[in-house]
């Protein structure tokens, strides 16, 4: 069975730029990189990467494929949250980062 983004309320929500951006942000944190460092690796500008993370722009396939080539990130995970083809160790690191971010958000709300 496919497993979609647990933070998304529906398949359509999982496809939205904000959900994609959140996954990209978690990926970057799991890799231990700053926005500038990751942008340099992908040969794009820092502000362009930042736009992907906040959801003001959707990451284009050519840039997404650079992530696939470098870290074996699954396009299905990136765009839809489907974890099936993600490298296990990377996915575990991403989930740990996501959990930390949710904990921080919950504490900030109280």
Order of helices and strands: HHHHHHH
Q: Could you give the distance between the termini? A: 36 Å
**Helix share, percent:** 55-70%
Class from helix and strand fractions: mainly alpha
Number of β-strand runs: 0
User: How would you state the average pLDDT, rounded?
Assistant: 88
Indicate the radius of gyration in whole angstroms. Answer: 13 Å
What's the tally of helices? 7
Poorly predicted regions are: none
Outline type: globular
Largest sheet, in brief, is: none
Q: Tell me the β content.
A: under 5%
Describe the overall structure.
This protein is mostly helical and 110 residues long. The protein is built from seven helices and no strands. The mean pLDDT is 88.
């Amino acid at each position: 069975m496919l497993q979609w983004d647990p933070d998304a309320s529906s398949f359509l929500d999982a496809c939205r730029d904000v959900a994609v951006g959140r996954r990209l942000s978690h990926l970057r944190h799991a890799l231990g990189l700053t926005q500038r460092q990751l942008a340099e690796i992908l040969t794009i500008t820092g502000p362009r990467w930042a736009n992907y993370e906040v959801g003001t722009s959707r990451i284009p396939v050519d840039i997404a494929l650079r992530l696939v080539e470098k870290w074996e990130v699954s396009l299905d995970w990136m765009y839809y949250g489907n974890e099936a083809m993600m490298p296990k160790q990377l996915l575990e690191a991403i989930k740990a980062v996501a959990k930390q971010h949710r904990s921080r958000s919950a504490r900030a709300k109280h």
